Amino acid sequence: MTPLELITREGRAHRTVVIRGYELDGSSETREIEPYSLRLKRRGWLLYFWCLKHHGLRCLYVQNIVGAQPTGRSFTPRRPVEL
Asked: What is residue 62's three-state secondary structure?
């Protein structure tokens, strides 16, 4: 299963995921997220999520996600889940 497939499955089930990915500045970060939606942009697909570490809505290009792990923890959606 690809990271995106896992993120999509867990988001639809309202469960958080720990993702590891590269930011636009090239740095790497691991964070627990509530996945919400995917949007196609000029540079590729963007995953929109609520970041539990930064307490806010964030996005990351799917091609920059290098790993994903399910947590088994559920969340109450803050917005519609569109995955």
From this structure: helix
Tell me how far apart the alpha carbons of residues 57 and 79 are, in angstroms, rounded to a whole number. 10
* Dihedrals phi, psi of 63, to nearest 5 degrees: -65, -15
Hey, where are the domains in the chain?
A: 3-72
SS3 category, 43? coil
Q: What is the CA radius of gyration of the chain?
A: 11
pLDDT per residue as tens digits for the range 4-49:
999 999 999 999 999 999 877 888 999 999 999 999 999 999 999 9
What is the torsion angle, in degrees rounded to the nearest 10, for the CA atoms of residue 63, residue 54, residue 29 and residue 76? Answer: -60
Fold that domain 3-72 belongs to in CATH: SH3 type barrels. (2.30.30)
pTM of the shown model: 0.92
